[in-house]
Design brief:
Low-confidence stretches: 1-6, 14-20, 22-37
Number of strands: 4
Shape: globular
Strand content: 5-15%
Strand order of the largest sheet: 1-2-4-3
Number of helices: 11
Mean pLDDT: 82
Number of domains: 2
Largest sheet: 4 strands, mixed
Length: about 280
């Protein structure tokens, strides 16, 4: 996959090369920020995360394998980029079933067993939803103890040929986010009409912080493979009006509680970037 190029605002050099002009202010400033976190000052959120690092490692391995199968399903279909929506849905479902035979056989919203990837996840099923862009998780109404993670792939089926990598990245972010909620529950989903205070209260929930940080870390590792987390690189990925901008930009200028959440998000994201980079090497 080709890496998208982003330029440094300070000198115009390509960020993914890791190079900057000698006079670039980022060389003197944020690009030389300390990369190691002082264990005496790290947030309670990072300390709690480290206590569960084995569960996190397993969860991340499963998420990476799910994403890998999604990507392989798309890329092994001849002419996938040029197909219309219905053709894409049909061929994607067929390709994924070949790569993932442990499924329920349904053509509409098929369910794939995560237990096929690791026995610890035998009660978790992934449901592919072709008619929505959203993702969520909940218990099955038919079987006690069964959890269904629903992933919407509408954008993958409807967008133009040039957006395949971006669509797969977005779906991967959803997968990481929802699978993290298996380890730590989040809050009730916001409907979009809440005010700023309610939004920050929601984003301050520990389970949401972890899930968003993990998804953002996945996006970071795709754009800057193998690189440690750096604020300057991450800033190039922030989308106006989106949750990531709230965490990494708006909260840094907010009240004390919001600033603490933002600092913790940088710590969590950095930790997840290291973990994903490590697992990607294997």
């Amino acid at each position: 996959m080709e890496t998208e190029s982003y330029t440094c605002a300070g000198c115009g050099y390509l960020l993914h090369t890791g190079e900057h002009s000698p006079k670039c202010p980022h060389v003197i400033g944020v690009h030389q920020e300390q990369t190691e976190i002082d264990p005496n000052t790290e947030s309670i959120h990072l300390r709690e995360l480290k206590k569960e690092q084995e569960s996190e490692r397993l969860n991340t391995q499963v998420a990476l394998e799910v994403i890998s199968r999604f990507e392989m399903a798309c890329r092994q279909i001849d002419g996938f980029k040029d197909m219309d929506r219905n053709e894409r849905a049909k061929h994607f479902s067929q390709a994924l079933k070949k790569l993932w035979p442990e499924n329920d056989g349904r053509s509409i919203a098929p369910e794939f067993q995560l237990g096929a990837l690791n026995p610890s996840y035998a009660h978790i099923f992934l449901s592919i939803r072709p008619f929505t862009k959203n993702a969520d998780m909940g218990p099955s109404s038919l079987k006690l103890g069964k959890i269904i993670v629903r992933i919407g792939i509408q954008q993958l089926l409807e967008n133009g040929p040039g957006s395949l990598d971006t669509d797969l990245e977005r779906i991967g972010l959803y997968i990481f986010h929802e699978l993290e909620h298996i380890l730590q529950k989040g809050g009730d989903e916001l409907s979009g009409g809440e005010d700023k205070k309610q939004l920050f209260e929601y984003l301050s929930i520990p389970g949401e912080m972890r899930a968003y940080a993990k998804g953002f870390a996945f996006r970071y590792t795709r754009r800057f493979p193998g690189k440690k987390f750096q604020k300057a690189y991450n800033d190039t990925l922030l989308l106006p009006g989106k949750v990531d901008e709230a965490y990494y930009r708006l909260m840094t200028e907010g009240n004390k509680q919001e600033q603490e959440v933002s600092v913790a998000m940088y710590e969590l994201t950095s930790w997840y970037v290291d973990l994903i980079n490590e697992l990607n090497k294997k």
